[in-house]
Amino acid sequence: MIDLDELLNRPSAWLTVEKESDIVVSSRIRLARNLRAFHFPGWGGEEACSQVWATLKPILTDVKAMPGCLSMEMNDINQLDKMVLFERHLISRELSEKGKGSGLVVALDEQMSVMVNEEDHLRIQVINPGLELIEAWERIDALDSEIEARVDYAYDPRLGYLTACPSNVGTGMRASVMVHVPALVLLEEISPIIKGLGKIGLAVRGLGGEGSDASGNMFQISNQITLGEEEMQVVGNLHEIVREIVEHEKNARKRLMQKKGIIVRDHVGRAYGILSNAHILSSKDALDMISGLRLGVDLGLLPGLTPSVLDELTLLIRPGHLQKIETKLLKVRERDVSRAKLVRSKLADIAK
Amino acid sequence: MIDLDELLNRPSAWLTVEKESDIVVSSRIRLARNLRAFHFPGWGGEEACSQVWATLKPILTDVKAMPGCLSMEMNDINQLDKMVLFERHLISRELSEKGKGSGLVVALDEQMSVMVNEEDHLRIQVINPGLELIEAWERIDALDSEIEARVDYAYDPRLGYLTACPSNVGTGMRASVMVHVPALVLLEEISPIIKGLGKIGLAVRGLGGEGSDASGNMFQISNQITLGEEEMQVVGNLHEIVREIVEHEKNARKRLMQKKGIIVRDHVGRAYGILSNAHILSSKDALDMISGLRLGVDLGLLPGLTPSVLDELTLLIRPGHLQKIETKLLKVRERDVSRAKLVRSKLADIAK
Fold first, then answer.
1. What is the pTM of this model?
2. Closest-CA residue in chain B for A341?
3. Which of A315, B57, B234, B309 has a CA that sits 20 to 30 A from residue A185's CA?
4. ipTM of the complex
5. Which CATH code of 1.10.10.10, 3.40.50.720, 3.30.590.10, 2.60.40.1840 fits the domain covering A5-248?
6. CB A278 to CB B263 under 8 A?
């Protein structure tokens, strides 16, 4: 049986799935659920949380939809592993600050996971590579139904699922898609699109989720409404909109290559050259230049590279992962040196 | 017999001589001489100039010190070839603007040359790779003596050689050395050195000579005084001072590697990465990054490269040479694209 250390010392398994294009990096759905018999985690205190954890852990590690998963309580996880889990979208900052009574159950491929006693008793999540929202919905719906058959969810016939924060009441669902749209950014066509998405009830955030900026030309698009709409409707709607954005981005790339082909080649080439040869790399610079490589891969300018290698690199260069690889805490400059070394060696391996 | 086109389609032969280090790129001496029987070129008009050219050409192409040389009159050279000759330090801007009656006689290795009817009737020049001022003086002195045995120079027993500009009267000699001092620039120790050189009668200029800035961390150091000092004294003095500057630069490099080794490696690595992969390269960027490579070669960080390859590259990326290679006039952006292509292919050849 694999342990947490082994899990965290390899990149998330689902990242290695090959995708046709790198415009849609991943699709993610999470459901907020609570048990009727307990106060919400924020009200119950450690005692109540421990009871919830004790109730849910045996069920979650036993459900058929998520076989052979790992379970861990927050007080058993060290700071570095928490950072790594956070960077893999498996725990939130909020959960990482909790201790006894809060925990994580995660499938070995890291596509399915459940946070216990974060803001809600359960935060069920499915991540898929590429644009696979419908599939993600089907998987999470099956997992949710299996859990629901064994516990009594806090559910109101009129409102739907009850959640700690009113913004989640109803479906308790947040569906989000990470898109990489460098051409729309380069042609300065992204702002009106973001504004338009806001008007139809979608939120747009940076790579790191809420409050983060769009490093590496990555944007996370998600639904905000959880009341008054069926899940499949929300998911289908988001799916269609993302497909439209993909078309916009493809179109922008075509125009970019026609009008400014040499500038794009230069941009991609310099990104590759610097990443392959730098000895100091900040996180922001690395993400921006990996964005250049993603564009290059999609345009066929970098034959040896694949989207999945870049997804893996995007993950491995983050502070938690770097420190996990080096097995110690590092200062900012040390991380920049370690990041450059890692990127150089990955790209050199591929060039061989 | 080689013709001008063949000559200009290969890099200057003396550039291919391997040097131990790249701190001193080249040593150059020129002598200003005039014929007693004629007005200075600026006063004589085309008629007189043509007489001078007719007098000097057979002598210069016949001297033993410069066997098998090419001679050409300015009105027979097209604009592009003039640019190339200028970039090779074989003609000055002033000579390139002249026509009939002005000309160039140049040895096939381009180390020895004579401009006829530039500011003076003769501007004799010797260029050597590395720090070879004494050797350059011996060679130019031999060439000058051979010419002097066959013509009557304008010479005053009290003043020395008479020249069109009073600043050259006396020895008529300008000795100069091109040095590459990136560590002194990076550590901000170059300014006091330049000031100090000024105080002892030496001039400091950029790569392109008078009025140019120090692109690529290259500086040209030359004597200003031509009166009251023996040539060997001036040359020996400059030689000693350049040796001191080389020691300063070596010392600065040592300190730089000790204190900021990773920054130097990053600087060198990025320069190599960008030059190997960019598709648009301005002249200034290219020179600055080639400076990074020179430093890398001298510090043993770039095993495949040699100083002579970088000297050659420094020459070939200049506008005239680029256009000569492409056999047509190019706009600025076209030159930047052509320059990037040339640099990429040269570095790729070496990496093989």
1. 0.86
2. B266
3. A315
4. 0.84
5. 3.30.590.10
6. no
